[in-house]
Amino acid sequence: MIRAVIVFSFIVAATGFIGIAHATFGDISQTSPKMVSLTGYELTSLHVGQQIGVESIIMNHATSQKKFTYMVQILNNKGQVEYFEGLSAAILPNQSFTVSQSWIPKESGQYTVQTFVWDGLLFPTPLTKVVQTQITVE
Question: What global pTM score does this model have?
Answer without folding.
Answer: 0.79
